[in-house]
Amino acid sequence: MRVLQLLILTLVFAACLLGCNRPESTFVYNTKTEELTRDVGSVVKERLDGDFGSPKNSVAWLRMPIDYGTFKGEVVEVDKDASSVYQFRVAFGSNDDKETGDEEEDAETSPTPGEMNLAGLAIIWKSGDYEGGSQIDGGKRDGEKMATLQVAAWSKDEENDEEGVLSLRQKMDPPPSVGDTFEIVGHKLSFGRQLYAAHCQHCHGTSGDGAGPTAEYLNPRPRDYRPGKFKFQSTLKTNRPTDGDLQRIITKGIPGTYMPSFLLLEDDELDSIIQYVKWLSMRGEYEIKLVSQLYFDYEQVVFDEAVESALKDGLEEFEDGTRDEEPTKGSIRDELVATANADLPDIAEQESNVLADAWNKEKLESAVVVPLVARTPDTAESRARGRVLYVQNCSACHGATGRGDGEQVNAYMVNDQTREKYPVPGLFDDWGQSIKPRNLTRGIYRGGRRPVDLFRRVFEGINGTPMPPFKGKFNNDKKINDARTWDLVNYIYHIPFETRGKSAGDSATKHGRTAASTPSTR
Amino acid sequence: MKHSKLYSLLVMSALLLGFASGCGGGASDVPTITVKPAEKEAAPSADDTPVGDDTPSNGGSKDGFGTFEGRVVIQGTASPRPALVLKGKAARDPAVCAATANIPDESLLVSEDDGLANVFIYLKKAPKNGKDSLGIEAEQALELDQKGCIFKPHAMVVRTGEVIIVRNSDPKPHNIKTKPALGQPFEATLNQGQTGELVFDRSEPVPVGAECNYHTWMRAYQLPLDHPYGVVTKADGSFTIPNLPVGTHQFVIWHERSTRPLFTRFTVKIKSDGEVVEETIEVEAAKLTDVGGARTKTIKLSLNR
Does the complex come out with an ipTM higher than 0.85? Predict the structure, then answer.
């Protein structure tokens, strides 16, 4: 008894002593980044951290087409006697551009923070002495030391929603003038991060790598956002999803998987999470692309060989007299690393522009798949035509009866990364996870059950999976092709209600099964 | 007895205290936001030329052009690859695929005199004072056919922006999918006689694999470059790269059976106009087995890490 008590007591004491040591949340780097030679790898990481920051100190890189969230405001009162200030009175929303104010609603163009916690957000001056001076250090302009001013607190007046006192974390010396305008940037990023931590990160991981603590118990695995591939989107397969696509997945969830519906989130919460997920995805893809450009020269093993061969060349040059100093392994290594470091800014510039272009809103909206013809009426004839297409095009994977048991599940696929055959037969996705063709007899459609969702899955395929696009395959005429696609969609809706061993046409005519037995989805 | 009650009270209160102080989730952590402008950062100094010696600093068209030619040969014996699909044993579409003969594994093609085919030899970046065309492009047809469930040709070099006509000559549908490391991926599903247009928008560091979702053994490689200095070795392992400006060049030599490039800096020096540099590039057979074979794992112990 004594021993037990003593044991419990020691354990409790130990727990108290150790405390709840909360681990610092950090982004993890890719395996390939870690495989780079140390000097090059550290420069890549430095750049990545400079451009995107960490979960606790995030960078709102304005080049990326992300709505970080902006509040426009104006200084209305400053302590005149003080030589430097931490806080001053401001007004939000009222000083919006008059020209644009007519066209759109004020609430749209100039949101006010209201009761929102603005702590930690960045402040950018748009007029006055500090204009363009997000780069301010200690109150003085300093081009070299870049530090953004951050908000410490915002307390709204009780009677007026738009005015209040804004406190900063850094001192402003000299103080700003009355009438100076500014923007407070990043509330969606900050709010998004907090919501992501609460709702998403235990599966999708802090870095959006789909490797949160819960992930290993789930099948299918949570999405890894970093390659910039999203399965269920309305856009063409090679494009990124629109905000609307991400919103649909978050609010509706993915039926048949562990992705739940977050329908109860408020609109602003949803928007913040979407922006944060996009930000994580861009960070991940940026890293992958940067490393892709360097990997085949600076991966540790390759790099060691390159040093040897460059040393040989260098020694030859030294003997020829074209090189002044006798090269050593160290000097050659430094030279090669210096080449990588010199190349990196250009690579980063290139990749970030490509990435910003890929997520460009207008570009995505023009890439949305819209059927050219309205849905073909769901008749027995239409389903019969769909059945023919199904047997020709889909049954090899989804099976003749739609159970997801086609012969293709016995084929061996090749891992694209290692160029090796997977050890087991079956289909694999781009993330290297085993996946099964959907069982269509259950009527559960992961990408959404609206007719247009099914149309898009057939038309563009599913990104990152072996589900291929069938656009233009059913007929060379685009309109007829779309009409055929609708026939196939009509048939797919009918599969769960099919009598086993009978085709759609048979069951429709012999058993009188008509549209009534198919879910009315329009 | 009283004593033990006191103990449990103590323990309970300690536990309660622990709960109250809580191991809070990350949700309460408010991040700090810093803004990074969209514009390009100012260059640190005017001197931003790369320090490396990848490109010849002088020379150029005035000095003329030379030729790099030779053969890639295999050293040692490479056991022939077993057929990918045996006759009549195709998992899918056996009436079309491997119907009359085995589908060979084209990932390692060695000629009788040890020449290694389908080796990519290329420069990463266009050389200074290089030409726009090598004058040998006409030999490479810009067509990727899918016939008998085999991609033809197996390996090709293309220029960015060039259109490769993808064709399906089989009576069964094919699908072609590329996954480039940098550029835009491509995917098309084609019926017999249908064609697609495959265009690479960016230069890639290594060749891009094309595959077919339907016939999983099908594979081909294309290397998109934004300059003409890249070739694939012929069946006997021979290659010719004409019009190389005078200077030092670092070639990448890549073969699909090695996960890493065979050489990342194969140095070729063209000293004067009209010079022909002839090299026999020897590749150890053991180097070409690491894909699909047993792979050794190197664990490095270092104090620097």
Answer: no
